[in-house]
Design brief:
Blueprint lengths: L3 E2 L6 E2 L19 H4 L1 H31 L6 H32 L17 H17 L6 H13 L2 H11 L19 E3 L16 E6 L8 H8 L1 E5 L19 E5 L11 E3 L4 E3 L6 E3 L5 E4 L11 E3 L5 E3 L17
Helix pairs in contact: 2-3, 2-5, 2-6
Length: 340
């Protein structure tokens, strides 16, 4: 009696199924236009050559942009410089990739081949066969009779790394005074101001549960605004003083429940700014590191392994929030000679 199954909607007689299927073989090969028409082959070679040439021009354009349009000191100038360099590199690598794909599809051998599996340990004959196949592949490119294409490819590949290497080498000779990264521009008596307006902040204006983005007073007057801001940005939060868990040596670092912490995540340096009022948790949007602001900004979740540095604050005679000092440790994810 046959074993019937209706899993796919139709009965199947398993007793009539063959033990094995015959190899159907390779499908009929269909020649490409470039295989039968010499004019089409030459046209494809010209297109590929042009794409490699475009790739070389893209690399040159990226280098010109790097030297002709330096980043400067403003966000707009940095954006323009990055955009132009990025466009040049996109053209360079995009055109080279398209050229390689078009070359393999239009000019290289497209005959179907079957390669049977063999034991992993190859014998001498197999290795010789592999070498022969590599030689066959090299000959299949027909580089020997396509001089222009070969020259365009070599030029594009030789120039491509320069788009990355020149800016990298240019930055190596920069300022290696690492000690300046140990400190920010915060100092005793310096007022906390709103980011980006620079308006001073009164303690009486900060309500319980609010979070304020803060920069140092006078930031716009320093020589390198972006560098100093990247180090000195702070998040100011006010909570019920009864919810604060403060170490004995930091009890005077806050003011009536107002605390200030660096916005630079101690994982990879992303800005942490997502504050959950009910849990007092501060979340980094990049990798979900979570800090408990009520308990010294300690890490409660995620890959960060250090609390956020706290900025000691107080108020001046006019009631404005001011720093007591700079951070007592380097901000950010890593630093020379940092002790964990």
């Amino acid at each position: 009696m046959s074993d019937e199954s209706t899993e796919v909607g139709l009965p199947v007689d398993r007793n009539r199924l063959p033990e094995r299927f015959e190899n159907p073989g390779l499908p009929e090969h269909h020649a490409r236009l470039t295989d039968t028409d010499p004019a089409a082959e030459k046209r494809a070679a010209r297109i590929i050559t042009g794409l490699f040439g475009l790739s070389a021009l893209g690399t040159i354009g990226a280098l010109v942009a790097y030297f002709a349009v330096p980043p400067g000191e403003t966000v707009a100038s940095i954006r323009l410089s990055t955009l132009l360099i990025g466009l040049g590199l996109a053209v360079a690598f995009g055109a080279a990739g398209i050229a390689a794909i078009h070359w393999s599809k239009a000019l290289m051998n497209d005959h179907e081949k079957v390669e049977y599996r063999h034991p992993q340990a190859s014998d001498r004959a197999t290795r010789e066969e592999a070498v022969a196949m590599l030689k066959e592949g090299a000959e299949d490119t027909n580089l020997s009779r396509r001089g222009a294409l070969k020259g365009a490819m070599i030029s594009a590949l030789a120039l491509a790394p320069l788009g990355f290497a020149v800016p990298l080498i240019g930055s190596v000779g920069g300022d290696w005074n690492v000690s300046k990264f140990r400190h920010t521009m915060w100092k005793q008596g310096l007022r906390l101001t709103h980011d980006p307006s620079g308006e001073p902040i009164k303690a009486s204006d900060v309500t319980v549960g609010s979070a304020v983005h803060v920069i140092p007073d006078g930031l716009s007057e320093v020589e390198d605004v972006l560098e100093e801001k990247a180090k000195a940005v702070v998040l100011l939060i006010r909570m019920d003083p009864r919810d604060l868990k403060e170490a004995d040596d930091r009890k005077d670092w806050s003011y009536q429940g107002i605390v200030a912490y660096s916005k630079i995540c101690t994982h990879v340096g992303c800005p942490v700014a997502l504050y959950e009022q009910q849990t007092h948790h501060l979340l980094c949007p990049c990798h979900q590191s979570t800090f408990d602001i009520a308990d010294g900004a300690k890490v409660v979740f995620g890959p960060a392994d250090r609390p956020l540095p706290q900025l000691p604050i107080t108020v001046d005679d006019e009631g404005y929030l001011v720093a007591q000092s700079d951070f007592h440790e380097p901000i950010g994810p890593s630093f020379w000679e940092r002790l964990k």
